[in-house]
Amino acid sequence: MTKNILLISTLDTKNIETEYLEAAINRVDGCTALLMDISMAAHSLGSPAISAAEVATSGGSSIAEINQSRERSKITATMIKGAVNIAEKLLAEKKIDAIIGLGGSTGSLMATDVMRALPFGLPKVMVSATAALPGLATRYIGTGDIMLFHTVIEIAGLSPLLKNVLERAAGAVTGMVNIDMIDNATVKTSSRKMIAMSQFGICEGCASAVRYRLEAQGYDVIGFSAAGVCDRAMEDMIGKGLFDAVIDLAPGGVGEHLLAGMRSAGPNRLEAAGRIGIPQIIAPSGINLMSPRKSRYKPDYHQRKKFDLDKLRTFLRLNGEEIVMVADEFARKLNAAAGPVKILLPLKGWSSIDGPESPIYEPETDHLFIERLKQKIDNPQVTIATFELNLEDEAFADRVVENLLHVLPR
After folding, report:
1. Global pTM?
2. What would the pLDDT profile of 325-362 be if each residue is shown by its tens digit?
3. What distance in Å separates the CA atoms of residue 148 and residue 52, rounded to the nearest whole number?
4. Which of 52-61, 115-124, 179-188 has the lowest mean pLDDT?
5. Hey, what domains does the chain have and what are their CATH numbers?
6. How crowded is residue 61: how many other Cβ atoms within 10 Å of its Cβ?
7. What is the mean pLDDT of residues 136-165?
8. In angstroms, rounded to a whole number, what is the distance separating the alpha carbons of residues 327 and 262?
């Protein structure tokens, strides 16, 4: 069966390079490139399967308006919208099996926006000349499962070096579609229930213990690092119905967003599971900590209790006012939950670096969070339980598993 690979590029600036990549894909047995042009300047180059005019129309405009406009950000958004609409339609009709993009800064930003609109598991390759520029790699990838292929050299002219890059890129994407993969449709029809779990280094012991226990009982547990990107991706995937329940061991990204920390997981963290009504088990690892950029420290931050996780990351203790504010945000989000929520709160520390022997241990401040949450939660679906344990104790992992099995029987 032929594998169709959607190739996104701007033919007005990268026509011959795109044609070379298209030909390299087509030379692989069983693979066909489906070229989409997202150019915004007028041109008559190439013969794309999907023209820039079609993309503009799908985005709610016309190619004439796009070509004449000087509002760069507006027309870029229009072309991205049109490309997303077309790509989603092609995927729904099972007419594409992978996607690859080719571009510099603007082309990479546009193509990866399209890629992130497509589901996890679909092969995605971005061939970019600007992948290494500070800040752009994370912008291109975002929460998508995108392979970023750095060309190193500019995508300009068919030198032997660029041909080598394009041939390797073609080999990468065609190789992906020519292996047997477990796709999302197969996952969703599996008899095993899928559990999303947030975790971080400071609760790794608990996360591992929970995973081992649940896998032994026939569940699949999918972990997401709560560093601000993967936990944001977890929310997106929960919202798309991929999981049956959530174990949120490390929801600290909620407070980090409020306090502008480096682990901010965005404004929608802790909302998707409640919105669709699947069970949630919530533990507090990292809630009482923040990790602001050191260049943005406020004067009082230098006097805070702190823990240096490594030479790049330092956790600061939240003060009473901040932890109450975070509790209010948790309550606001969880009061809207349509499914069962169990909040499990250990009283002897909320992570491996937080306990009676730790320099950041401050149970009286943690107690403010607990009491505020109890005051503000008014959703009968939400229950709160406390335990004379540290979050990393084996017994706490047992409590997590027991509570999940109570609301999600096998």
Report:
1. 0.81
2. 999 999 999 999 999 999 999 999 999 999 898 989 99
3. 24
4. 179-188
5. 3-177 (3.40.50.12020), 184-407 (3.40.50.12030)
6. 18
7. 93
8. 19
